[in-house]
Design brief:
globular; six-stranded antiparallel beta sheet; alpha+beta
Length: 829
């Protein structure tokens, strides 16, 4: 296609995307002569809009002088996914790509220029005022300053460096129908026949990305960027295919409350500073406004790579190259439903609410993203359930992240086994209280029984009450095994006998089990008598978290490197330069940077800001406390993010790239449990509220942390710290209650040590007398005084330089960030 069109090789991604589009509109023998488009949407594709890739098009110009041409010639390189009746046009003279709607095809050679212009202007008269901006070359704001320097570097290297912009393919997973549904349905040419239904918000002439120059030596002053290693591999062809029974018992061995509660955390920094990521800035490539999947995802889909996205329907699974494996997985799931007695086939009752069902396909992967299993679930369409008829209560608890980290820390300290168990088809064990009717799963009805519906007897994935029904069954089974439910975390269970104990943290159907070997072994045997359980042995991968144990050093460390890689791919930031800190010191983020014009709002609507913040948020609450403050700031603008917020998010992801090898390490020392809190007065954006945060470490590793904006405006830094201490004290009391449940009741008699760097706030917390400086503070914030008086919390002073919680309240420099990370147990290994 590239050779036939005479276009540069740098447009390979667009050519490949168009070939996928054509492939999906072509009959396939594997589909009994149907096209993939017809198999997906049920109707044959309309091919009247197709043109050869690289076809010349004439595009009307709005701004021109009397003697200037009224139309420009460009080259067609693909259909737009987001704009109806729009195509992507490559401009050889400017080497960029724009989205246009007002154009005419060049047919049978070159048309008469005057005729072409007249035709375009005639079409423009019917265009309902939609204007075309002249295609412009977007440049980084530092281009003018850097052009000469970059050119000199290129001459010294002697290599041609291509612009990275167009190598990040803007297209999506081109289902043939993707653009066809949105772009052209009836009409000879997308440019002129169907304008009445065009989206008035779709901007024409919009620069969506930079196409690289031809592979010829660059000239002085030209802005060039080096493609990422991943893109260079693709260009070279590499990698493209393919109960409290005895409160008087002894403490568990070594678990003496006085040795754990209130101990000092280690503050010594390593003699040699860990090398941090590069502190340089990154000139980001042009952000594509027509967002889709990255080029490598598109390549994988086109090549039929089983590692591409999971099938979204039965039809897609049947068209996949690994359909035989999916067919086996469907039969396994149906046999599973029959074995559990999940439903009976009955005639549809008159007037009954019958909900739908679907099949969900998923490829389970390990830490290296290698497919380990193909699973199919029959999922009820619970969105059709009616409250009060089909369901009532829906809540079901899961273990808190802090609970799981505490269990990991205890296992590291005492050398306990850490076992991961998984209940197979857990939801199918739940008993239903309501009568629910459901249509049979797609493609599973026996001949002559297509009219029957399923009367559910057991819980099923997708039902609103499914999680609650399973939890009730699971809790009853745990009680039958002699386990006791924790009052601090209802998804955690424990059992003690003398010096032996076992504790279980539950996340739906996954269990993290630790404790002394005797009771852990007994529990493993007992739970297998209650359910069908997969015993994975020593935990290595839990909820997307890598868990690595060093028995010799007595440590356990956790990280989420695979999740970081996924975020980088989702935001198309492969190969960019890393950042040294998650947020710039002095960087301002506020609501004045939110877009107010329709054009900018529409522009930002295609940017995956919410998805990126959401993915980073999961990291911040599981294994990366160092990004909590930044995520807190970015999350405030998810409803209407601006370009400044988007750049800040990309900086955060670049920081994660550079700190990918940071591990949260437990068991480095025996410092026990200690808390640290800090507050930054009046620095929260927009409302002048203060930011407060805390971190609790156990044996040198953070097990609980928080960054939060205070609900009221504090009148001084002391007041902000005082309110922050109350916030941290609540977590201290909860952690003590959890230790009391899981380990021994005597922990309830020991105070938790909580450090602050504000002596004034500590004096207010210790002094329970009325004070003119505190009379206006809401009663709820005086909770800390009672906690100190009761002996629940023991306040201590820690200088600001060694205050780990400082990282949750403000941006910090790279050197300070590295120091505070070490204090929380985040180490580069």
């Amino acid at each position: 296609m590239l050779l036939d069109a005479g276009l540069p090789q740098s447009l390979w991604a667009h050519a490949y995307k168009h070939s996928v589009y054509i492939h999906n509109c072509t009959s396939q023998a594997a589909l009994d002569g149907k096209t993939p488009y017809e198999a997906r949407f049920g109707v044959p594709p309309d091919l009247r809009h197709l043109r050869p890739w690289g076809t010349k098009v004439w595009v009307r110009q709005e701004k021109f002088r009397k003697l200037d041409p009224k139309a420009r010639a460009g080259r067609f390189v693909g259909f737009s996914d987001n704009h109806r009746d729009a195509i992507h046009v490559y401009w050889p003279d400017q080497r960029n790509i724009t989205v246009v709607r007002n154009y005419i095809w060049s047919v049978d050679g070159e048309p008469d220029v005057v005729d072409a212009i007249d035709a375009i202007l005639s079409e423009g008269a019917r265009d309902d005022g939609v204007e075309l901006d002249a295609p412009v070359q977007e440049r980084d704001e530092n281009d003018a300053r850097d052009d000469a320097e970059l050119h000199e570097q290129n001459e010294e290297q002697g290599d041609h460096v291509e612009n990275e912009g167009a190598l990040e393919a803007e297209g999506g997973e081109q289902d043939a129908g993707g653009a066809q549904d949105k772009s052209m349905e009836d009409g000879e040419g997308v440019g002129g026949e169907d304008r009445e239904n065009a989206d008035p918000d779709a901007g024409d002439g919009e620069v969506i990305e930079q196409a690289p120059p031809d592979p010829t030596p660059t000239s002085r002053g030209q802005r060039v960027k080096k493609p990422s290693a991943y893109v260079r591999n693709l260009q070279s062809g590499e990698g493209t295919i393919d109960g409290r029974n005895n409160s008087n018992c002894k403490y568990p061995r070594g678990m003496v409350p006085s040795e754990i509660m209130g101990a000092l955390a280690a503050l010594e920094s390593p003699t040699e500073k860990d090398g941090g990521p590069d502190s340089g800035e990154w000139d980001n490539p042009t952000v594509a406004k027509d967002w889709g999947l990255a080029a490598h995802v598109m390549v994988a889909r086109a090549a039929g790579d089983p590692l591409s996205g999971d099938p979204a329907s039965l039809q897609e699974a049947q068209a996949a190259p690994d359909w035989a494996e999916w067919e086996k997985a469907i039969e396994v799931e149906m046999e599973n439903l029959r074995a559990h007695g999940t439903y009976d086939l009955v005639e549809k009752p008159v007037g009954a609410n019958v909900i739908g069902s679907t099949l969900v396909f998923h490829r389970k992967r390990d830490a290296q993203a290698i497919v380990t299993q193909r699973k199919v679930r029959v999922v009820a369409q619970g969105f059709a359930q009616i409250l009060g008829i089909d369901f009532n209560e829906t809540f079901a608890p899961v273990a808190k992240s802090s609970s799981l980290r505490l269990m990991i820390t205890l296992a590291a300290r005492f050398g306990w086994p850490m076992v991961q168990l998984d209940v197979k088809s857990a939801y199918l064990n739940g008993e239903l209280d309501e009568v629910i009717y459901m249509r049979q799963p797609p493609g599973t009805a026996a001949p002559g029984q297509e009219h029957l519906v399923c009367r559910l007897k057991k819980s099923l994935y997708g039902l609103k009450q499914a999680g609650r029904a399973w939890y009730r069954t699971y809790r009853a089974a745990m009680m039958a095994l002699g386990m006791v439910q924790s009052e601090a975390d209802h998804a955690c269970f424990w059992q003690r006998e003398g010096e032996s104990l076992a504790m279980v943290g539950t996340i739906v159907d996954d269990m993290l089990v630790t404790g002394t070997p005797d009771l852990v072994g007994r529990f493993r045997t007992g739970i297998k008598s209650q359910f069908t359980v997969t015993d994975a042995g020593e935990v290595a991968w839990l909820l997307g978290i890598e868990v690595v144990r060093d028995l010799h050093a007595g440590t356990v460390r956790i990280a989420q490197r695979t999740a970081i890689d996924a975020i980088v791919r989702a935001l198309h930031l492969e190969g960019v330069k890393s950042a040294s800190t998650p947020i710039a010191v002095g960087g301002q983020l506020d609501r004045t940077q939110c877009p107010t014009t329709t054009d900018v709002i529409a522009d930002m609507a295609g940017v995956p800001y919410r998805e990126g913040v959401g993915m980073c948020m999961y990291l911040s609450v599981t294994s990366r406390p160092d990004i909590s403050y930044t995520v807190h700031r970015l999350a405030k603008y998810m409803a209407n993010p601006g370009h400044t917020h988007w750049e800040a998010l990309k900086r955060l992801v670049r920081y994660l790239m550079g700190s990918r090898e940071l591990w949260l390490v437990y068991g480095r020392d025996s410092s026990g449990l200690a808390g640290y809190m800090d507050a930054d007065w009046g620095t929260s954006d927009d409302a002048w509220h203060s930011i407060c945060g805390y971190a609790y470490t156990f044996d040198g590793g953070a097990i609980s942390w928080s960054a939060k904006q205070q609900a009221v405006v504090a009148l001084s830094s002391t007041e902000a710290e005082y309110i922050g201490i109350t916030h941290a004290a609540k977590e201290a009391i909860w952690l003590r209650a959890l230790l009391t449940d899981l380990v021994h009741p005597d922990f309830a008699t020991h105070a938790v040590r909580l450090y602050s760097d504000n002596k004034g706030a500590m004096d207010l917390a210790r002094n329970n007398a009325f004070h003119v400086r505190t009379k206006h503070i809401a009663i709820r914030y005086h909770f800390i005084r009672e906690a100190v008086e009761r002996g629940d919390v023991d306040l201590g002073y820690r200088r600001t330089e060694d205050m780990p919680a400082d990282i949750f309240t403000k941006p910090v420099t790279q050197a300070r960030l590295e120091h505070l990370r070490i204090l929380m147990g985040l180490l580069a290994l």
